[in-house]
Amino acid sequence: MTTAAAFASFVRSSCEGLIRNLAETLDTPLAVLDHAGEVVLGAPDGCDIETARPADRSMAAPIEVGGDSHGSLVALREEPTLAPLLQSLAQDIGTRFGLERDLNHLTDTLSHSCDEINLLYRFARILRSDEEFEPNAHRLLEETADLLEHRLVVLGMASQGRFAWKAGPELEMSKSLSWVVSNQAILESVHAEVGRELREEGVGQQRRAGSLPSPFGVVEYMLTPVSVRSEVAGYAGLFKAADDPPFETTELRFLECLTAELGNAATARELQDELSELLFNVVQSLVAAIEAKDEYTRGHSQRVYQLSLRIGQRMGLPPQELQTLSWAALLHDIGKIAIDGQVLNKIAKLTEEEFQMIKSHPERGCRVLEPIPQLRGVLPGIRHHHERFDGKGYPDNLKGEEIPMLARIISVADSYDAIVSARAYRPARTKNFALDEVRQGAGAQFDPQVAQTMLELAVEGFLPEMEINRNGDSA
Ligand SMILES: [Fe+2]
Question: Would the pTM of this model clear 0.70, i.e. be above it?
Fold first, then answer.
């Protein structure tokens, strides 16, 4: 709303009774004029002030706010004694209009702050979800467009090589805006141009204004870059037809919220990817170290990982737990690193002392991994993968659901793979033999639900194809 419109609205809604009463009391037609001399309010109704020439409006008092004139209060009857009263009333109207304008401004600011907080809260909820970056980025785009209801919001991330856009629900797409969003090459050229400018200037967070000469009229835009680790990774932009209202500061702040959150999320994702890769390499090195000590279990960790993951997926574990299960399954025998290789590879019967040493590998494994904070979640799966559902396992004789679910899954996969693999002291057994063992062990050695899932996967042919040292076995 313009200032003149706000003034007219204020006078009509707040001053009508006052002006009418005073006009009746003084028996003089009164009116409030705006700064262009137009009658905003006249009293009494239908008085000839509407048609009176400016020259006839001899009694007038300016209505000002902070030195700015917004109009005047005039009387048609020339009566010098009225002048102080008109001055006082005009001053009062100006003061009240100023206060109302300040209050409206404060209300708008608070409302925009609330919207901004709301938007950031919704962004945070979206970014905390387990989905990938791209769908999340699109949801952020949609949230922003819903808030900036009269604008077209465009998002382009260099890594995706394309642009997504969303029109606010109240926006009537003009031909010029439709031309922009249907013309990928135009959006790419804007992206390239602004990216080049920012790279040359070495600036990461500046807004960029520009315009495009579409065949249907000029389109103006305002872009803010998405910075990922000091590099420009993409942009979010507001686009409008040239004759649409100008971009407002609040809208640009929302756009900056969008790009800041996207930049943070993309940076976090990159760091997480790097950390995951580092962890993966660490885990692979550790697994290689285990298998270097025990020649008969080569590939065992990898197969237990494949099988555990398949079971976990079938049981509907959430993505985060599947990730933990994967690490735990790969590392379940890591404690064997700390056990004498001669004992691990011994063909003759183990002494009681040697047997106890081998049984200590779950606890030793936890001690090996405890210093790595990112792997703490896998420790229960490692410590308890030799527990039995009936409580007769080790190291803690846990029973039933006291045993962490990840450990119950690894236990079934570990036993199955051990049976179908050759050992120093026996050849590999058949797949059916191993499945019978799983079936018979349900409720005793194994969690019945996990065992059942394993058997279902076998029946349906969903066991992963695993390269096993079968030692001539044809199962
Ligand atoms: Fe083990």
Answer: no
